[in-house]
Amino acid sequence: MKVLANPCCEKCHHTASTPCSDYVQCRAEGPLCHDDVSCKQQRQKLMSLILEPDRKNKQVLVCNGTGCFSSGSQTLIDLLREGLAERGIHTADVRSTGCHGFCEQGPTVIIEPDKTFYTKVKAEDISEIIEKDIIRDEKVERLLYEDPVSGKLAANFETVNLFAKQKRIILDNCGKIDPEEISHYLAKDGYKGLAKAIQTMSPDEVVEEVKKSGLRGRGGAGFPTGLKWSLCRQSEGTKKYVICNADEGDPGAFMDRGVLEGDPHAVIEGMLIGAYAIGADEGYIYCRAEYPLAIDRLKTAIAQAEENGLLGNNILNSGFNFKLKIKAGAGAFVCGEETALIVSIEGKRGMPTVRPPYPAVKGLWGKPTNINNVETWANVPYILRNGTDWYTQFGTEKSKGTKIFALTGKVNNTGLVEVPMGITLRDIIFDIGGGIKDGNQFKAVQIGGPSGGCLPEEMLDIEVDYDNLTAAGAMVGSGGLVILDNTTCMVDIARFFLSFTQKESCGKCTPCREGTKRLLEILVRITKGEGQAEDLNTLENLAKVIKRTSLCGLGQTAPNPLLATLRYFRHEYEAHIFEKRCPAHACTALMEYTVDNEKCKRCGQCSKVCPVGCITGDKETPYVIDTQKCIKCGACLKKCKFNAISLA
């Protein structure tokens, strides 16, 4: 369905064949510039699509991102629409949206205008929601979010800790609009940034605008986006490409997926603006195949943009041409590295190439190419639409804007959060995240994914930006934020992340292929209680060599979790090596279960649940655990009601 026809109004004095830069507002106000019937019909259709949902008394926003979708949110949407139709209710609009952000509470439903936030909604709850909330304007209290610390029910989603301290720019549309309806994006000023760029600015002016904004790449090290664009623009050649890196592979990370599923047009608009500025006429979105919902919504958005003259030839009658394709990646973590991604698009095995030349000079099929990640592209429309003065009010001196994090781990509130650069880790974890689960103590935060670092409690008040985190031994990365508590072994954490990067190494360069394997072997020995005194120096020296000599970013950053844990948690390594003890009681080989006979009531429950029969005793004979047979499963520890099982 086309929603971007050319009828204009007297306000801008443009003809029906030449749209103005403020085209959405232009079509929403004033009389038509002529009486053409088709012009009137198209105006009516456009305004109906954009304004009709807002005329409803209530809007029911159902999260239909991957997390909620897998829990049956589409069924909820169908039942809501059927239930309203059966009751003859036409004053509520049921909308399928992207991720609301509070994934562990899904499926979630927000009802406007009161912003009522319902959590863990099931099919059997729908009738009650319709009868109480939509018809009688009463809250279904049992479905409201309950704060795990205070026990209070949230009056609306804005009072939930996870949302209260966020600054949602990139995620603002996610959870509000239907990502499969271009009219919803238009109603939120979508494509105004594109219209402003191609109709009122030169390509060089667009590049300068992005430079002035201070936007830095959101996919890793934070390279200045405007500078990256200018390098590609200045490269010789008439054929150039832009690429969106949506190959999100960090464990526990789903920032890019949330944006693609909830607001795909923002990414497309950002790429269009970048292509115009750089001089590209073709682009690719490289999205991992494990994101089928994101790919489906991207396909829909691209088709709608093409149908409405926003992709293809002569975009908005400007003479600017741009075509966009999707490339589904096979799930190789190394393809997040831009040169590996490029060769993967070309149909080859995803392996990095030597730089220089950089992609800005010689990229896809040997042509100048600019690559940014999903979040970077999604920032661009807001910068063009609102200006650099607006954008630079958020963030720090050297890190402007906001950043999306995937907050996971041992924290009460997990999900997608968008915060201004400069916020402290303490605010993210204890205010937005709601503190540590189960009353445990905070130990560390792993920030930046498997290539990031683990920061201890004394670093909680550090301001989150690119330079501060790098100096502290971590990195912003793409935005993974894993919270660790006192039950976590830091040696084992380093082993876990190094195991991931070692498996994902493409094997092209020796330092990464062989070096990470040697590091992993030493860490495995230490967690088994077989570590030696010289291992600490070996780990540090080898890690530094790998960082200096690896071909690409995977190998250059793979030792980061190891080096950070050695820097801040060296005492845990020493306990494993010299005392043959895991302070967190997490390394199985160093555990030993014993029975405290002063506390033991001789109930026999521990022996009944032991899967290998290593616990013996009776009412007359003290219970003992055969440590040679014990597989250290912890079943006896969990079963004992008298705390008679101890773990050394």
Automatic annotation (TrEMBL):
Gene3D superfamilies the record matches: 3.10.20.600, 3.30.70.20, 6.10.250.1450, Glutaredoxin, NADH-ubiquinone oxidoreductase 51kDa subunit, NADH-ubiquinone oxidoreductase 51kDa subunit, iron-sulphur binding domain
The keyword Ribosomal protein is assigned to this record: no
Key words, A-Z: 4Fe-4S, Iron, Iron-sulfur, Metal-binding
Keyword Iron-sulfur tagged: yes
Alphabetized InterPro entries for the sequence: 4Fe4S_Fe-S-bd, 4Fe4S_Fe_S_CS, NADH-UbQ_OxRdtase_51kDa_CS, Nuo51_FMN-bd, Nuo51_FMN-bd_sf, Nuop51_4Fe4S-bd, Nuop51_4Fe4S-bd_sf, Soluble_ligand-bd
Family: Belongs to the complex I 51 kDa subunit family.
This protein's name: NADH-quinone oxidoreductase subunit NuoF
Organism annotation: Dehalobacter restrictus
